[in-house]
Specification:
It comes from Massilia horti. With 477 residues, this protein is mainly beta. It has one helix and 50 strands. Bound molecules: calcium ion. Calcium ion is lined by residues 66-68, 70, 123, 125-126, 129.
Length: 477
């Protein structure tokens, strides 16, 4: 049973939307089944449609707007089989961390940055693509068979509109194929319980400016931008026992920030969540004060973008974050600058305790960060280095504590990389750490920015830094 349309709760107060009975969760989608398919060419079928969808799925799985080339990214128009581009969308890699789009208004396309184009029927040339032309929807199903009975197309609308609402409870429903599954801009005390949100063209839950959001025992999957999104600010949110998967990884690379994206704000808790397969960050709690990220699993992030993290924070205005990152498992963050836990941009007042970080490029990275405590973490299998310290101006990194951690180097990776400035020795205090390494000659790398960088062995690290007096390497001091 599917409610077709947007459930309008805009500005409403104290409404509960709940499935009752034993027939399974009721569904909401602002779309419709598309029927009447006829063969067009090869494996491509078409059917009449009265709108241009933002999201098309076959048998419940999203297919991609037709695009060229079929895999990212193009750097020229060489090999492009048509010059018909007017009205198409250019999707481009603005830098290693940001994807942007623009609509083409002529048949030329800017090729100065890596790009693909989408939205024209001629681009539909492989399985898993759709396009609209002349009032018909064209689909090449993933299995090449007729789409009849299997296609759902959604208009540009939300599943539930709870903007400016107060005290709304969404319990035990499914929301699929919407722009935002739930739009809850500047809402108060929205509760999303036992709810499944899938195939969102923008966000699973758009909750920017919200206060008191609760998401519990729910799932958000196949979201093109952000799973749970408090972009401008989010205050008093509690996200627990919830999974967020496939964010920014549906079809071709799309503009995406994080599985859970909290911009500014305070007093948020994220506990016992699972965030898997994110195009950019797994969880971003940027400039969030008095917030905690605990007992959660972040597996596979930075799938399409770079200079990003499993768990990301920063404090551009240098306000004390009082952020707790505790008891999490962070793994498989493998882009060229894929970081497990990233304290960026003057992050300060962060406690990173009792986390397990493995199979990253850099496990824990501090950029211009100060007054942070890094304790009791277990770090294994980093691609290049376990902990990176980088500052733009001498003195920015200071007064951090790195104690009681276990760092295991199994592939010759360095434990610390520190650059640049005259204050490297006061980046942190280090002690009571347990190190193991198969190559103790490359323990740390230091660079003051003026003379040549140095590689320090375990013993030369201890004498250079005067630190780690009670720490052990391969079982001995
Ligand atoms: Ca194509």
């Amino acid at each position: 049973m599917t409610y077709q349309g947007t459930l309008q709760l805009n500005g409403k107060q104290n409404v509960t939307v709940k499935t009752v009975g034993t027939c399974g969760k009721a569904s909401i989608s602002p779309g419709s089944a598309i029927t009447g398919w006829t063969k067009y060419s090869g494996n491509i079928y078409s059917a009449p449609i009265s709108f241009t969808p933002i999201q098309v799925s076959v048998a419940g799985t999203p297919v991609a707007a037709a695009h060229w080339p079929n895999k990212p990214w193009a750097t020229s128009t060489s090999g492009m089989p048509s010059t018909d581009l007017n009205g198409a969308t250019r999707v481009y890699l603005d830098n290693q961390s940001v994807i942007k789009t623009n609509t083409l208004t002529s048949n030329s396309v800017d090729t100065s940055k890596p790009f693909y184009v989408e939205g024209k029927l001629w681009m539909l040339d492989t399985a898993g693509e759709w396009a609209v032309s002349g009032g018909r929807l064209y689909v090449w199903a993933p299995d090449g068979q007729s789409p009849e009975g299997r296609v759902w197309a959604a208009a540009n609308a939300n599943g539930i509109n709870a903007d400016n609402s107060s005290g709304i409870t969404i319990d035990s429903v499914k929301i699929f194929s919407a722009f935002n599954g739930i739009s809850a801009n500047t809402s108060s005390n929205l509760k999303v319980l036992n709810t499944e949100i899938s195939n969102s063209a923008q966000d699973g839950i758009w909750a920017s400016g919200s206060n008191g959001l609760t998401v519990s025992n729910s799932s958000v999957t196949n979201t093109r931008r952000n799973g749970i999104d408090g972009w401008y600010s989010v205050n008093g949110a509690n996200i627990s026992n919830t999974t967020v998967s496939n964010t920014g990884t549906v079809g071709m690379p799309s503009t995406s920030d994080a599985g859970i994206m909290f911009g500014d704000g305070a007093n948020n808790t994220i506990n016992n969540v699972s965030v898997t397969n994110s195009g950019y960050h797994g969880i971003s709690v940027l400039h969030n004060r008095n917030t905690s990220v605990t007992n959660s699993t972040i597996d596979t992030a930075c799938v399409y973008l770079n200079d990003c993290a499993g768990i990301y924070t920063g404090s551009p205005d240098k306000a004390v974050l009082t952020l707790k990152i505790d008891g999490n498992t962070v793994t498989n963050i493998k882009a060229s600058e894929g970081i497990g836990i990233y304290l960026d941009d003057s992050a300060n007042g962060v406690t990173v305790n009792n986390n397990k970080v493995s199979n990253t490029t850099i496990a824990i990275n501090l950029h211009n960060a100060f007054n942070n405590v890094i304790t009791n973490n277990t770090v294994t299998s980093s691609g290049t280095v376990h902990m990176g310290f980088g500052q733009d101006i001498s003195g920015q990194i200071r007064n951090n504590q790195v104690t009681g951690n276990t760092f295991k180097s199994t592939n010759g990776e360095q434990t610390y990389n520190m650059q640049t400035g005259s204050n490297l020795k006061t980046f942190a205090t280090w002690n009571n750490n347990t190190y193991t390494s198969t190559n103790t000659n490359v323990f740390a790398r230091i660079w003051d920015g003026s003379s040549a960088g140095q590689t320090l062995s375990w013993s030369s690290w201890k004498s250079w830094s005067g630190q780690d007096g009670s720490s052990t390497m391969n079982g001995s001091r």
